[in-house]
Amino acid sequence: MEQLHLNVSLLRRRVPNLTKAAKSVGLRPATVSNLCTGKISVGRTEVRTLVALANLAGCSLDELIIQGERYEMIETGIKSIDLFAPLAKNGTAGLVARPGMGQLVVLAEIFHRLKNHGYKIVLLHPEGDHPEVNDLKKDLDVICYTVKEAEEEVQKLGKAEDVLFIADRSYVIKGTIVKLQESWNDLKSVTTFLLDLKGEAVDENLPYGPLETLWHFDSDLAARRIYPAIHPLQSTSTVLEGANLEQNHFYIQQKAKKHLRRYKELRSIVQVGGMDPLSSADQQVYKRGELLEAYLSQPFYVAEPFTGVKGEHVPLDQTLMDTRKILDGAEDHKLAKELMSIGSLL
């Protein structure tokens, strides 16, 4: 049976303020967001929900629902991203984080890595004074200060090159991003990154509208300085749909998410009463969850001057192999601190 998914780009063009529109017809914005990123499958969605979305977009169900198309994954070598929320090529990725949680460092690292694979990187500079954006500038090819300039530069580069385009959420609110993306339909590929320099996105549903990739940052991980602080359960991607993933990736990813979900529940118990209240089975779950959480931390190349720790690139196949080892108990003899800020398992 062919995989079904929403035509996210059509929704983005037709319904730029999807949160407000969804509420107006009785749809939960969180449900719509999960449908867009593939966290909820179209095949298991109520027909009335799909009909309501089609009505909002002014299209037919056949236009809203795409059959059989595969999303290509851009492998970053960043374990937590490639495992839980792969970057969808030629899609739109939104970052949800409060200031200080490391979203700019993650972006800078991705740009550093992908630039080495031939990607051209264009930034539409945010309006106002944002000195923190300087952290991204090292690997940029073009910095644009007007929307018109951004349109022209991406058009010029994108005819023969894969492009990464970055913009602040303020341009989403104005409707600028949708118009820009409409002008880039005939280019090789333009993968868009949307960030929120004000940190307001965490308090809103669908802060960027429909997305192919969502990276939600975890305040608990950031507080414990476990970086990159990508939330393994709230981050997701259209690439996660079963038809787009290799079977082994899908199986291990789902197993890891289930394990980490239970581990996070147990953490609140352990923080109050220690390990004694846990059954032997739950103690094992907690131990392996702690190991996996530590393993998913990773030193970055762009942070080397500040941490003194060499950056690490971990191929997806290695991440999957290591994750399975941890979940199967092969690393139970180790302490979590031994897996903190490493690349692959030693």
UniProtKB/TrEMBL annotation:
Belongs to the ATPase alpha/beta chains family. The keyword Manganese does not apply. GO terms for molecular function: ATP binding; proton-transporting ATP synthase activity, rotational mechanism. Residues 244-319 form the ATP synthase A/B type C-terminal domain. InterPro entries: ATP-synt_VA_C, ATPase_a/bsu_AS, ATPase_alpha/beta_chains, ATPase_F1/V1_b/a_C, P-loop_NTPase. This is ATP synthase A/B type C-terminal domain-containing protein. Keywords: ATP synthesis, ATP-binding, CF(1), Ion transport, Membrane, Nucleotide-binding, Translocase, Transport. The keyword Nucleotide-binding applies. GO terms for cellular component: proton-transporting ATP synthase complex. SUPFAM superfamilies: C-terminal domain of alpha and beta subunits of F1 ATP synthase, P-loop containing nucleoside triphosphate hydrolases.
